[in-house]
User: Fold this.
Amino acid sequence: MVYYCALTNAPPTKKLLRPLALVAVIFFTVSGGPYGMEPLLGYGGHGGSLLILLLTPLFWDIPTMLAVLELNAMMPVGGGYYQWVKRGLGLRWAFFEGWWTWLYTFVDLAIYPVLFVQYACWFLPGLAAWKIPICLGLIWSCAGLNILGVVPVGRASLILGTAVLIPFIILFGLGLYHLGPAAYAFTPLSLKGVGFSAAGMGCYTVMWNMLGWDNTSTYADQVERPARSYVVSMGIAFVLVLLVYVATLMTARGSGIGADVLRDNGFPALGVLVGGRVLGILLAAGGMASAVGLFAAVLLSVAQVPKAMADDRLLPSKLSALSPRFGTPARSIVVCAGVVSVMILWTFMDLVVIDITLYGAALFLEFITLVVLRIREPGTPRSFRVPLNVTGLCVLFVLPVGIYLFALNGALTDSGSAWKPAIFALVLLVSAEIAWQGVRWKRAQTRKMDYI
Assistant:
């Protein structure tokens, strides 16, 4: 059986990412803490918000994690999902996968510097006037960290992860002490009174706060014992993310904070209500740490894909060049940071809608790839296999497709402005075919020149 080799020219003695650091990187790639989940209470109310939070990971994240774990167990290679789709569906669909992923990650990355400034303004409101320089400073600082390699990013993620989690642990503990256990009692979980569009936007909010499991595969060749490490680290990260989200949402519900106050002022306002100004400061600092950690971790994953595509002559060959000192795709990292630098003026929820719409399309190609490889290569060794046959996999993947379509319809039928970014995202999906035709033409011209 033919296996794809790891796409790296780094020296064989390079340091590898260990399981504990991998948990931290995965945590930041898919979550970074509850920051950004503040609008959920307004969309779903007390009963509906918790129901959306519990059901969305069941429909969206668990099928994704299972697919990623099996595909990664087959091919723990640099480039991750791009290489999987190329092997299963061919070069054209691999280009679509890489193109859509590149687009949605630019959108995703643009969110975090903006969030950083919002939480920094908790300390100095005047910083809002310096939004652009601060965002650019964050973008290029994280780009420099990524050029140093995966291990520094992993170490930074461990430190930042601690800074994110401790304030929420304190929030939950003080909530139990001041509000009492009765405030955390489960109210009836129901979407009664929640409009279709509001439920859809609530799903978008949770989906954005728990996406990116496949992004963690793009540096699998830089992970110690990747097949085993990913199964353990991904499971720990999922449980940790869900527990933090549920505890935070239940604290917000029990505190009686207004949905508008939470949406407009964020979790620092909840911290002040529950534990005083010091806790509000800790949560604001945690929000800044979360933004930095998310940006660094997501940039780490996406910078590997243009490099892999450039190796296949789908993007300019210069993007495949590795830093001679650090063995990282430095040019790819710089290009990604440059594109994100021009996208930081968009609004948060617009970016979320575009992000999920693009990401879902790329994710579905990975689902199809797993089914195809199960049929075509049933005997290929896998250290992890989803305990379902081909029919069971198809049924399983109906769940994320269903919630994706539900959220998209909610945005398209929104009476506000959510339909505009949804339409824009659909246009961006179509752009993959236009770009592919351009690549085909250029490759044809190159072959003609080689023949001459």
User: Anything to note?
Assistant: Residues 445 and 451 are 10 Å apart (CA to CA). Residues 1-13 have pLDDT under 50 and may be disordered. DSSP finds 16 helices and no strands in the chain.
